[in-house]
Amino acid sequence: MKKTAEVIIIGGGVNGCAAAYYLAKRGVKDVIVLEASESIGHGGSSRNGGGVRQSGRDPRELPYAMYAVQNMWPTLSEELGVDVEYKQAGNLRLGKTQAHMEKLARLAENARKAGVDVRMIDGKEVKEICPYLSDDIIGASWCPTDGHANPMLTTLAYFKRAVELGVSFVKKAPVKAIKKVKGRARKVITVDGTVFEGETIILAAGYESREIARTVGIDIPMTRYFEEALVTEMQPPMFEQMLGTADADFYGHQTVHGSFVFGSESGLEEAADMEPADLRTSALTMSAGCRAIIGYIPALKDAKIVRSWGGWLDMCIDEVPVISPVEEVPGLILACAFTGHGFGTAPSVGLMLSQMVVGEETVVDIHSLRYDRFKADR
């Protein structure tokens, strides 16, 4: 097994696989990706609703979210040679109360200032776009350039192309520590004691990134958050749009195959007392998610659930990711704490990580996502 490379990537999720592909595409093919589980995309990359959105984002995320939508997603299936089921059919973020509408209006205004085509619409226009929605909806934010894609297909497409271009992937290789040599991040040590060496290390391991980063004196302020998802049996075609709500009760879309995929929240996620390896869903929380979905889409009240699953999100203290080199540890690049927003921006994030490795300016300015933004406020 190869143990030295120009670049070591910790984490075989969509961001790690995308970074590996864009590195190989630009000629940096001496790359090793270490994945803790025995399957690629086992974490959040396969446990999300597939949203490719600009609306509803923090202003700090908008530049690279917009870049991905405008320049990468439209041709991604062709580039990777796999249909990632990308559909740019718009995103409705729904509201039932005046408080909901005020929250959506603030988010929409932030997006408009950054150049996103998003506007507020009333309940009548909501029903014109999607007649299957509840009459209780009084309005929504509407972003026609948002969309959705298949998370697992996208992750595996990046993996497949990276392998074809010469990248090495090592599965069942959970990382225990990073070790510095002469002041630089140089070695990656797995739980079984295997040592990998690289000139540059990209840490993209979800919540596990926190413990790994601590081994070189870096602490990323994030917590774990358990979110659940479900898929229904096939339904007649209803709508193509991505849906969300002001209070984030649920989000999801109808797939090209007819089934609906939804992520949902119950309010108990931060109190989940489970081990990280435990991915079981709960009848208590899943039923809460289903009630929320039916409250907005009554047409699905009799739809059967085919399966449900859960996954851990790496929630950052200020709700946006950390994507940057670390000045205190030369050779280390962080790409973690995505707070459940990481799938739709993976193409641009992977591209920017490859640019950081070779010393180029990133395609958009992401200085506000640097690790050194964290300071005590008192």
Account of the protein in words:
Keywords: Oxidoreductase. With 378 residues, the protein is of the alpha/beta class. It has a domain at 4-49 and 152-222 and 318-373: FAD/NAD(P)-binding domain (3-Layer(bba) Sandwich), CATH 3.50.50. Helices cover 26% and strands 27% of the residues. It contains nine helices and 18 strands. It has helices spanning 14-25, 62-71, 76-80, 98-113, 123-129, 151-164, 209-214, 283-296, 346-358, and strands at residues 4-10, 31-34, 51-52, 91-95, 119-122, 139-143, 147-148, 168-170, 175-181, 184-190, 195-203, 222-232, 242-245, 250-254, 260-264, 305-316, 322-325, 332-336. The termini are far apart. The mean pLDDT is 94.
Fraction of residues in H or I helices: 25-40%
Low-confidence stretches: none
Give the percentage of residues in beta strands.
25-35%
Oligomer class? single chain
Instruction: Please report the total strand number as a whole number.
Output: 18
Structural Rg: 20 Å
Any idea what the CATH architecture of the domain at 4-49 and 152-222 and 318-373 is?
3-Layer(bba) Sandwich
* Mean model confidence by pLDDT: 94
**Major β-sheet profile:** 8 strands, mixed
Examine the coordinates and then state which fold CATH places here, giving the name of the CATH topology of the domain at 4-49 and 152-222 and 318-373: FAD/NAD(P)-binding domain
Briefly, what CATH class of the domain at 4-49 and 152-222 and 318-373? Answer: Alpha Beta
Overall geometry: globular
Order of helical and strand elements: EHEEHHEHEHEEHEEEEHEEEEHEEEH
